[in-house]
């Protein structure tokens, strides 16, 4: 929720999806965390590395896709709660004198500077949280993959590990919700309108997550994650552009189109570098 509020639905999904792609590729290519390296499955290693480099370029490009700010009342009185802003306003007002038009101009400049500073801070926080979320998603399938490769007689079917992970997710969700209720003194803020959509989206997410298990078990980390990561970002961006309108302007459209072009080429390079089965 925090990522979507600060970055927008599309940019948020793009950021953590690209980070997950990078984590997944590194895990499969170098054999991190006890997972066997997949380099022996590569027919053209340099093409695989090129795909990874392009993924990094796509991540950098995605940082330039900014959420369109909603219209807000940025009067100087409301911004006066910020000490730096109020002192700056006072200095500018003294400089420009008592002329009414000059004071209004000073107020407008201070308000705009304050808005930009606040927006930059929120965006930086959102990017950081999105990167952390992408890292966690990138390693969330490691336990089942590790078991497949290290436990004798372990099932090689990814679907056999879905129930275990979902039980862990449910228990963690209950724990976090109870902790939130305790923090709010048993007065949690729950919007009743999102309960049914939440269950529906949970079902769709569960289906997608199950497909991820199958993809990783069949293709491996370095090939599956590039394909997995680009899809959610594309769908989320389309929602952001067409429905929520939190991505607008030709500048954003150009960077967004460039991201998908680069990411698609990166995925193609990574997948094409593997040996044909």
UniProtKB/TrEMBL annotation:
It holds the Pfam family TMEM144. InterPro entries: Sugar_transport, TMEM144. Its main location: membrane. PANTHER family: TRANSMEMBRANE PROTEIN 144. GO terms for cellular component: membrane. It comes from Polarella glacialis (Dinoflagellate). The chain crosses the membrane at residues 12-34, 46-65, 124-142, 162-183, 195-217, 223-244, 253-273. It is a multi-pass membrane protein. It is found in: Membrane. GO terms for molecular function: carbohydrate transmembrane transporter activity. Belongs to the TMEM144 family. Keywords: Membrane, Transmembrane, Transmembrane helix. This is Transmembrane protein 144.
